[in-house]
Amino acid sequence: MTIKVVRGNPTxxxxxxxxxxxxxxxxxxxxxxxxxPRPRDSWADPSRIAARRLPxxxxxxxxxxxxxxxx
Length: 71
Hints:
Elements: H1 12-31, H2 46-50, H3 61-64
């Protein structure tokens, strides 16, 4: 594995910290089964957004699209 610093001038401590993170992630990825599904992050779940009721059409609907609990 080759790591190249493209910008900046990291200190040896910063470079060692970054390399430790990369190595830890690589080791964790190597221990996971290749066909195992990864859990989805809840913030990326589309049902989180669709769970709320959409505002009803009307003269103040534009404001309720951002503030759903108003009006």
